[in-house]
Every structure is written in structure tokens, then in C-alpha cells.
Amino acid sequence: MNKQKPEIRLLYRYCNEQGMTLIELTVVLLILTTLATVALRSTTNLVEQARWEQTKKRYEEIKKAIIGDPDVVINNHPDISGFVADMGRLPANLHELLGQEYCDNDYTIVSVPGTADQTACTTGAGNWIVQTSYTAPTASQIGYGWHGPYLMISESSNDEDAFTDGWGNIASSANDPNYGWNYAITAAADVTLQSYGKDRVAGGVNYDADYPASATAIVKDDWLLDISSGIDAEIHAANIPGSCDVSAIADGKACVDAGWNWLAGGGYKCFKTVAPFDQDTAITDYATCSGTPNRIWRWSPNPACSDPSKTTKASCTAAAGTWSGCNAAVFSPKAFCMDHGGSWNYDSQQICMRINYRSINASTGATEITNIASSGSLSINSDGNLKSLHFTGFNNTLGGLNQLPAGSTAFTINHFIGSCQSLPYPATICTGAAVTAANCTAGTPPVGIWNAVNSSCYVANDALCTATLGGTVKHSAVSIAPVIKPVIPRKPVPRIVW
Predict the structure, then answer these.
(1) CA angle 68–74–80, rounded 5-degree value
(2) Closest CA to 58 of 205, 176, 161
(3) In Å, how far are 2, 125, 387, 388 from 425, measured between CA atoms?
(4) Which of 119, 372, 420, 464 is the most buried (most CB within 10 A)?
């Protein structure tokens, strides 16, 4: 038989006899209700905070999808990615981040070209938008075109809730391509982006407040790099034979002794060594003079300037005199030239910088590679040394803003002949009697570019000079690939080494 302990039997009997009063039950219920209310409020706050955090996270994801995150370094290189880096522009709407093709007045139409849905778009007063397909980069060309989707989604890009904020705000209508977000591009090339918060209307406080408080999410300087101050370049100059300038030599004897021509007249003549010590004009050559008694072959100077009081070329020409100095009729090596009073003139070329970047074709709306050039030329001496030059005044920059969009960009140094040419520096310089302006510029495209300054044809390679034009190569072209550099907003303009 199971026997209970006395104290247990006592407690059991007391509970059966006494029970719980109504007041005690009420107190218990009040305590339980209070605890449930606190728990419910805490749960609600946690849910709302989670939705706010989700909104913040997705806001940052949209920004990175547009302009990337250059502060992130991958393999020692900044992370240059996103819509702008591929397309050279801002997305017209958030749908462009998710789908390459769409209907601009009904984003719910499936993005499949050539289908009945596309026909429904165009017959319904809509436009079927096709973003340029991606072209991969090569060693000599940057990549460009739509390379999305730029946001990770589990839904279709045509769904109204494909990428909502944390509050679940969805597209307001079929022609709202922003999935409930307040997205726009301003006239100043800035981006505004906001969530309308829990209450789904503008304004409000606490969780009803718009996020973020400021609508401006991306400013112009976040996706464009200002190049108005110019671009520096280190350039290895070509080594092209120069020429000896002896025109300033005032010493006729030194000129003639060096084998050059004295243009002012005078020269070596035969003189009498006895009174009256004048010139023996009957003798005009050294052999006869030196073989005749009382005769000497010596220099008889004539002044180089028409004004004998002016002994330098600079002073002569400044006084409106005529300078008839020395002339190097034949080529003289640099060392010989300098040792005999001449000055060495390096072959000087005019060069410019060209930049290839992504932009929009105003006629077709397609993304393509656009080429811009420095507005003027810089002179570079062809002495084979490294030169530091600064290029400015770039034309045709994005929207006239004198800025480049973020992304990899190709830079080249080119010849400037009348304008900034597409021919990279240094090209083959072709000379000779057979080379003329007519045969240099013949054909479509022309064989080369005629430079009237030095009567030479600039071509891409030696074969075009010798085989096509029948000329002589003064300098051979050096093949240099375009310099591809990342353009990063708010960072220094890249320095080019060519």
C-alpha cells in the first residue's frame, strides 16, 4: 500500500479545502497580460528595426550596383564595377539594373525581344528599350555594355516587388520601374534615392520617416572624374636624326674650315706678301697661289650682316639687317656640329593625347566607345629621352562637363598634324622624292597623313613607306598598346606612361 508523507497529505487537503480566491486569479491574469503586452511590444520593435535595417542594406546595395565601391581593393586594384563602369552613364531607372531589355511604359512585360510581349509594348504606345550588349575588353580596348544583373534577386525583374525596401513598398503602377523606391536623376547629374518608410508616404517620423533623410544618394563627383586641370604623361621620345644649325656662326673662316658654305661672300684668296699687300685677283686657286713667289693663300672675311657693326645674327635681324651666315650643305653629326660652333636641332614632333571612354550615342541611345582628344598640341624633341608633359583642354567630354565616367579608360599619345590624329606616336616617317602629298593621302582610308612642315608622310609601318610609297624610312614606328587605367572619382587623375 502506497503511503504519503504527513506533510504532503496536509498540503493536499489544504488545497482541496481552500482553493484560489477571485482576487488571486485576477492578479495572476493581470500579471500574465502585462508580460504578454511587453513581449508583444518588444517583438514589434524588433520586427520594425529589422525592416529598417533591411531598407538601409538594400539602399547601399543599389548605390554599389550603380557606382561600385572603389574603396574596396581586390588583388591590389580598386573595385571598379557597377552600371556606370560598364555603361558610362547612370541608369534611367532601377529596372535597368535588373533587366537588359524592357518596355518603358509597362515594366511588367517580359523582357524577351521579338515576342508578342514586345509587340504589345510598342503597339501600346511604349518603347522597347534595349541596353547595349556587353563587349569584353581586350589588350587594346576597354569593355563596355550591359553586364548585369547588378542586383541579386530571387524574383523576376518584371515583378512589382523585385527589389523593394524593407517595408515591402512595391511599384505604384505598371509604369513605375523603381519597385517602390523614390529614384530620379537630377539636372545636375546627381541621383536621388529614398524609401518612404513604414507609412509609404513622404515625410513622417520614427519608422515612418523617409530613409535616408536626404534624398541625394549619389552626386556627380561620385561617378565622374574632373579632368579640367589636365593629365600628366611620361613619354619616351622617339630618337629621330636631327640637323646642325650653323646659321648663327659669324666667323666665316670657321665655317669654311668645317666644310660648310659661307653665304656672305669672302673666302680664301691669294694675297701679295710684298707691298702693296693687296689681293692678286688673277689667281683664284690654292695651288697656283702657293706656287707663286711672294704670294699667300689666306682668309679674306666679309661680314655676315649687311650692317658691319652687327656681329651676331640676333643683333643683325633686330636692326633690320640681312644676315648671310654659314650654311651646312651636307649632314653633320651632332658631335662635329657642336665642336665647330653649330647648334644641334632635334627633330621636333607635335603630339596630343586621346582618350577612349564609354558614352551614349545621342542618335541611337547605345553605349559605345567615344574618343576625345586634347584640344592643342605639345612639342616633343625626338632625342630618345623621357619627357614629362601636361595635356589640357580636352574636347567632347561627357555632356560637356569636362569629366570622365568611372571605369577602365584607354589613353594614347598621338601625332598632331593639323589636328589630333588617330595615328599613335611615334609613327613611321616616310621621305623621299617619290613621296608626295597626293600618294600619301590616296585611298580610303588614306595611306598616311601628309605633314607639309617637313614634307613627309606619316604611316603606320615601314612597309607602307617602302613598298607602297617607294620612300625612305626616316624613323620606324614603335608599336605601343593603349594605356588602360582605372578612372576613379574623387581620386587623382591617372598619370600616363607612354
Answers:
(1) 30
(2) 161
(3) 111, 51, 13, 15
(4) 420
Give the range of the structural domain holding residue 162, as residue numbers without chain letter.
52-218
Q: Is the pLDDT of residue 308 over 80?
A: no
Helices (H), 124-243: 220-223
Q: Are residues 415 and 282 in the same domain?
A: no
Which pLDDT belongs to residue 145?
95
Q: How many domains does the chain have?
A: 3
Residue 414's identity, in one-letter code, is N
pLDDT tens sequence across 201-211: 999 999 999 99
Do the domain assignments include residue 45? no
CB atoms within 10 A of CB 491: 12
Q: Which residues contact 251 (CB under 8 A, 6 or more apart)?
A: 341
SS3 435: coil
Give yes or no: residues 287 and 397 share one domain: no
Examine the domain organization and report whether 319 and 330 are in the same domain: yes
Residues 208 and 262 in one domain: no
- 338 with 292, same domain: the answer is yes
Q: Please state the length of the chain.
A: 498
pLDDT in tens, 127-180: 888 899 999 999 889 999 999 999 998 878 888 889 999 999 998 888 889 999
Which pTM does this prediction carry? 0.77
| CA 375 – CA 354 distance, rounded (Å) | 10
